[in-house]
Amino acid sequence: MATYHIETYGCTSNRGESRAIERALRDGGHRPADGPADADVAILNSCTVVEKTEQNMLRRAEELDAETAELVVTGCMALAQGEEFREAGIDAEVLHWDEVPSHVLNGECPTHTPDTEPILDGVVGILPIARGCMSNCSYCITKFATGRVDSPSIEENVEKARALVHAGAKEIRVTGQDTGVYGWDTGDRKLPELLDRICDIDGEFRVRLGMANPGGIHGIHERLADVFARNEKLYDFIHAPVQSGSDDVLSDMRRQHRVEKFREVVETLDNRLDHWTLSTDFIVGFPTESDADHERSMDLLREIRPEKINVTRFSKRPGTDAAEMKGLGGTIKKERSKAMSELKMEVVAEAYEAMVGETYEVLVVEEGTGDSVKCRDSAYRQVIVRNAAERGVEVGDFLDVEVTSHNTVYAFGEPVETVEEGVETVENERSSEVDSRSTGSRPPQSSS
């Protein structure tokens, strides 16, 4: 169990994001510290209204960097001017707010207690399909809270999903400690069938599969690829945390996979899907990780090039076997974390840059900062649409957007209807000038 300290500056939106971060951390078995000096990690949710505010954020970040073992910076300044923290020499992970929990959770499984039920948050329905975990990772404390896997029937989970859709869910997030082992306790690997059945529910909605460890989905990965390929409702997205590019380290972590199994899962999905997103996690600075092991992780990241990457510095959890190992120095962990984080930003930016100029159908899933909304394309990549209210764009809408630019970890898009309406207006104006005797079809639109 880790301790955290969180400070929030700025608007109501930032405060709401901090509450969401805290909920996720508490669900993961973490607890608040008395202050930054007592915390395993400090989180600064920043603001960037005016220049004076920016200077205050930098000064506070410097103070927290000196006080705490690890610093994470998120919020408006982190997204708009994240490079300023690095240029100021502040050793911090600069992350989008919804990346913070998975970073702080140190690669551990999410915690769902036996009484966890589906919930509807806006248009997002959270559907826990099972509890517990088949793994016994040496660094993970949440297994003590969750126990072994316990899988309710497909029919029970489908009914819960149907209830969420009827209640207004436009996106169903299928969650669990390890969704890939759903049904393992009953002797039947049932995840592909469950996803098919959920997608068969009447209604216009999308389904996102939650974390599935490579060892859990290997063996059903070909069936799973078929499910993704035939269901338009299912986001072409998978979160498969590899944690290390070194088989020696994976063995010491007691992970149930080795690098080759991870590669096989990725290659299968590459072969079946044209546009999909791989999300994965790396833990840097595990006690037995050598320089060569770290380079193997860097090489794997360069090779696989996931579109979403969580990089976590190892920290000891009381009562775990890894806590008894002789750890690496903080300087080594910071250097390795910095190197991998820089590579991560390069890889992720490449993925979003490739989207610029393309048009995608997206689902508006939640409100963003100011008058913006956050959308997801078919591969669950995030697209921000600004000036949403004046364009009549609301949460729950499906629309086509043209990606116009990106900000490393997300893209910006313009609704295609806006462009088409503008062209139609010009054509109508031209039509009014044509002789009233002219009839027939409108001339073809220019492709330019």
Written overview of the protein:
This protein is globular. Mean pLDDT is 85; it is low at 419-448. A five-stranded parallel beta sheet has the order 2-1-3-4-5, sandwiched between helices. Strands 13-14-15-17-16 form a five-stranded mixed β-barrel. Strands 6-7-8-9 form a four-stranded mixed beta sheet, with helices on one face. The longest helix has 24 residues, at 330-353. The protein is built from 15 helices and 17 strands. Helix 12 (291-304) runs parallel beside helix 13. It has helices at 12-27, 51-67, 76-87, 100-104, 143-146, 154-166, 191-199, 214-217, 221-230, 247-253, 259-272, 291-304, 330-353, 388-391, 416-432; strands at 3-8, 31-32, 41-46, 71-75, 93-94, 119-121, 124-128, 171-175, 206-209, 237-239, 277-284, 308-313, 359-367, 373-376, 382-385, 398-406, 411-415. The chain has 448 residues and is an alpha/beta fold. The protein has three domains: 3-99, Methylthiotransferase, N-terminal domain (Rossmann fold, 3-Layer(aba) Sandwich), CATH 3.40.50.12160; 106-353, pyruvate-formate lyase- activating enzyme (Alpha-Beta Horseshoe); 359-419, Nucleic acid-binding proteins (OB fold (Dihydrolipoamide Acetyltransferase, E2P)). The chain starts with a strand and ends in a 16-residue tail after the last helix. Helices cover 38% and strands 19% of the residues.
The structural class is alpha/beta
What is the H level of CATH, i.e. the homologous superfamily of the largest domain?
A: tm_1862 like domain
Instruction: Report the sheet with the most strands, covering strand number, pairing sense and barrel closure.
Output: 5 strands, parallel
Residues in helix, %: 25-40%
Number of strands: 17
Distance between the termini: 57 Å
Task: Average the pLDDT over all residues and give the rounded result.
Answer: 85
- Strand % is 15-25%
> What's the quaternary structure here?
single chain
Q: What's the number of domains?
A: 3
Enzyme class: transferase
EC number: 2.8.4.5
InterPro entries: Elp3/MiaA/NifB-like_rSAM, Methylthiotransferase, Methylthiotransferase_CS, Methylthiotransferase_N, Methylthiotransferase_N_sf, MiaB-like_arc_euk, rSAM, rSAM_horseshoe
Biased composition (Basic and acidic residues): 427-436
